[in-house]
Amino acid sequence: MLQNMNMKQQQHFLPFSVVVLLFLLHCTTTLAQPAAAPAPPGPTNVTKILEKAGQFTLFIRLLKATSVSDQIDHQLNDTNNGMTLFAPTDNAFSSLSSGTLNSLNDQQKVALIQFHVIPTYIALSQFQTVSNPLRTNAGDSSRYKYPLNVTTFGNSVNVSSGITNTSVSGSVYSDGQLAVYQVDKVLLPWDLFGAKPPAPAPAPAKPKKRKADAVADAPEDAKVDNSSATSLMTTQTILFFGIAHAVVAAIFSL
Ligand SMILES: *[C@@H]1O[C@H](CO)[C@@H](O)[C@H](O)[C@H]1NC(C)=O
Ligand SMILES: *[C@@H]1O[C@H](CO)[C@@H](O)[C@H](O)[C@H]1NC(C)=O
Ligand SMILES: *[C@@H]1O[C@H](CO)[C@@H](O)[C@H](O)[C@H]1NC(C)=O
Ligand SMILES: *[C@@H]1O[C@H](CO)[C@@H](O)[C@H](O)[C@H]1NC(C)=O
Ligand SMILES: *[C@@H]1O[C@H](CO)[C@@H](O)[C@H](O)[C@H]1NC(C)=O
Ligand SMILES: *[C@@H]1O[C@H](CO)[C@@H](O)[C@H](O)[C@H]1NC(C)=O
User: Fold this and answer.
1) Contact 96, 17 (CB under 8 A)
2) Do 94 and 17 meet the contact criterion of CB atoms below 8 Å apart?
3) What pTM did the predictor assign?
């Protein structure tokens, strides 16, 4: 509690850029990599591609801190599906409201970054025909989880997570295996930033199995108020007589 309050104060008193820096310091062990020696031609190196493009330093640091960059490199090497990245610019990260990233634990940070990775290669022209929602490396693309939709209009490609709407503002890299597109907003997934889904509607009673279930579900059923318990009973009774009637009718028709 006390720690939380301190955190809050820190966020209020420190300029946002400093908070971002603190966050990065917190989650990267090595902030500055020594200048890379010219790499021999080999497997695709996604961080290298982003470094070359410039203006993705924060995304690169998060890719490394969460080890998602290794995941991408391995997936590129190990599968033939290729890969597509939506890379938010440094501006995209600095325009997030204060505390957005700090509110996430390590596992959630991994999910956030994986949400920007599609495990298939999608050329710019293919966006018109992809089916929504796209599946990302963050997993479950069902509603309230990690859905990511793409809509196209002429040459423009819009990306929507249900929380964040943005459009692809440039193609950074494409080699038939890996495509990297620039986006000007960080794509915030519903599972981490959206409202919690409404409680599922009570499943319609299935009278036939209900009796057996009632034993296992006892604690939950105990909470059911008397009136609906009564109506459940009535349904069962009606169904029982319905079946009994059908059986009798069947016997007599033989
Ligand atoms: C990818 O490139 C970065 C920088 O260009 C380098 O630090 C890293 O070691 C490279 N990774 C691999 C697997 O070669
Ligand atoms: C790439 O995959 C091959 C097997 O398909 C494997 O032998 C090689 O070690 C992998 N390289 C990297 C850098 O993961
Ligand atoms: C794409 O997003 C822009 C704003 O970023 C909006 O003006 C446009 O209507 C959107 N197009 C589609 C097809 O959703
Ligand atoms: C994404 O597309 C699916 C399928 O068309 C749709 O059901 C869903 O509402 C869309 N979600 C968003 C956030 O646009
Ligand atoms: C985002 O775009 C979807 C259509 O893809 C639209 O239904 C929704 O209202 C937009 N949300 C915001 C916050 O602009
Ligand atoms: C529900 O049943 C319990 C015990 O059978 C009884 O004490 C209670 O008053 C009933 N509640 C209502 C709302 O009828």
Assistant:
1) no
2) yes
3) 0.66
> If you take atom 6 of ligand 6, which residue's CA is the nearest one?
226
In 3-state terms, what secondary structure has residue 201?
Answer: coil
pLDDT digits (tens, 9 = 90+) for 82-91: 999 999 999 9
pLDDT, tens digit (0-9, with 9 covering 90-100), for 106-133: 999 999 999 999 999 999 999 999 999 9
Contacts of 125 (CB under 8 A, 6+ apart): none
- Torsion, Cα 115 116 120 122, to 10 degrees, reads 140
Distance (angstroms) between ligand 6 centre and the Cα of 165 equals: 51
Task: Check if the beta carbon of residue 135 is closer than 8 Å to that of residue 126.
Answer: no
Pocket lining: 226 vs ligand 6, CB cutoff 6 Å: yes
Q: How far apart, in whole angstroms, are the C-alpha atoms of residue 21 and residue 103?
A: 15
CA separation, residue 99 to residues 7, 19, 112, 164 (Å): 9, 8, 14, 17
